[in-house]
Amino acid sequence: MATAIAEAADVESVEHAARIESVSKSFSGPAGQQLVLDDITLDVAPGEFVTLLGASGCGKSTLLNLVAGLDRPSAGSITTDGRPALMFQEHALFPWLTAGKNIELALKLRGVPKGERRGRAEELLELVRLKGSYGKRVHELSGGMRQRVAMARALAQDSRLLLMDEPFAALDAITRDVLHDELTRIWAETGVSVLFVTHNVREAVRLAQRVVLLSSRPGRIAREWRVDIPQPRRIEDAPVAELSREITEVLRGEIRRHGQH
User: Fold this and answer.
1) By CB neighbour count within 10 A (0-12 exposed, 13-18 middle, 19+ buried), where does 59 fall?
2) pLDDT given for residue 2 in this prediction
3) What is the pLDDT of residues 139-156, one digit of tens each?
């Protein structure tokens, strides 16, 4: 089967922020080729928020890296609406640059004229509620603030698709909850499409319009849920908890079926 990673050429005619068609991925190992992802087909609509959920090692991050263009599928094709922006669990900010300069670097790589970068960086910092933090160094920022800067830097790429690989996993529960609110607000304000990887069921339900569950290796789409709970949502809301319990039971079944603990 042919493989391809492409960017949609005509934004006016784009029907999907991302289209993943029959994608498989294998890696070489001591025992030969290991199939990590098997025949994944998934569309993300423009402006849609989708979470990828599954047990550790099921291939969620591998799939995100394929969509980002950091690796190529062994089979199948991936098409995106322009070049995606990627945000990791670690902020990956340059410690020798200020918060504003970290964002300006992304603007520079995008080709934004030098005279416009500072103003745009300050606008993005204000969007993530860090107004006045342009000159702060990374070591002066809390973990949550660093992830806000990382989010602003990702948004500076002006992508229509934001890929997020467990960006809040290392944060304490309260900070994570606050950033859930912020991400939901930014998503609503910007209209960006989001593909968000997590192993936290309640986080998936708290954020997404659609939850996609991957089975354990090889990763296959086991099931999807449409989340019709109105925003804003809270982790502790009864409808969030109820759907989370349902998804958790299915996830447990997948883990038991594949003999993982």
Assistant:
1) buried
2) 38
3) 999 989 999 999 999 999
10 Å CB burial of residue 32 (0-12, 13-18, 19+) is exposed
| CATH 3.30.465.10 is right for the domain spanning 15-84+159-261 | no
CA atoms within 13 A on the CB side of 176: 17
Q: How far apart are CA 155 and CA 217, in angstroms?
A: 32
Sheet holding 18-29, edge to edge: 3-7, 75-80, 18-29, 32-44
* Spans of the chain below 50 pLDDT: 1-5, 7-13, 261
What is the spatial distance between Cα 85 and Cα 64, in angstroms, rounded to a whole number?
11
Contacts of residue 30, Cβ cutoff 8 Å, sequence gap at least 6: none
Q: What is the pLDDT of residue 32?
A: 76
Q: Domain ranges in the chain?
A: 15-84+159-261, 94-158
Could you tell me which residues come within 8 angstroms of residue 255 by beta carbon, excluding any fewer than 6 positions away? 55, 216, 261
Give SS3 for 164: strand
Distance CA 183, CA 198 (A): 14
**Amino acid type, 68:** A
Q: Give the pLDDT of residue 216.
A: 84
CA–CA separation, 147 and 36 (whole Å): 29
Rg (CA), the chain: 19
Phi and psi at residue 162, in whole multiples of 5°?
-110, 120
